[in-house]
Amino acid sequence: QVQLVESGGGSVQPGGSLRLSCAVSGRATSSLFMGWFRQAPGKERQRVAGIEGNGGETMYGDAVRGRVAISRDDAKRTVTLEMTDLKPEDTGTYFCNLDRSYWGQGTQVTVAS
Question: How far is 95 from 102, CA to CA, in rounded Å?
């Protein structure tokens, strides 16, 4: 059974930083897409960042490009999202994704004064 567990969410002030992590169990990750998506109340889920397997390309959403960095450690089966200069519009539930198929339960990020 594939499981994804996110951690690292929280509340920060505008301009702050957060580091989200996702640990995968039940499946090797090295050849698979790993990514982060977010969903704000009343809005559709949108991709924040993604990284293809086997050393493939990384991709970022327009709203966060230049402020976030995604990385992966396939030996540990983890994917990390470093977020800086956070804005109130970054508030939402952040979900880890594996292979565009499996989802974690989500971790809440709140950016407010």
Answer: 10
- What is the Cα–Cα distance from 104 to 108, expressed in whole angstroms? 12
Instruction: Return d(Cα 26, Cα 12) in angstroms, integer.
Output: 32
Name every residue whose Cβ is closer than 8 Å to that of residue 56 and which is 6 or more positions away in sequence.
none
Contact assessment for residue 99 and residue 84, using Cβ atoms and an 8 Å cutoff: no
Structure tokens at 55: 């050393």
* The dihedral sign for the CA sequence 27, 108, 70, 48: positive
CB 9 within 8 A of CB 20: yes
Would you state the pLDDT for residue 1? 94
Distance of alpha carbon 41 from alpha carbon 22, whole angstroms = 22
CA–CA separation, 78 and 24 (whole Å): 6
Report the share of the chain in percent with pLDDT over 90.
97
pLDDT digits (tens, 9 = 90+) for 14-64: 999 999 999 999 999 999 999 999 999 899 999 999 999 998 899 999 999
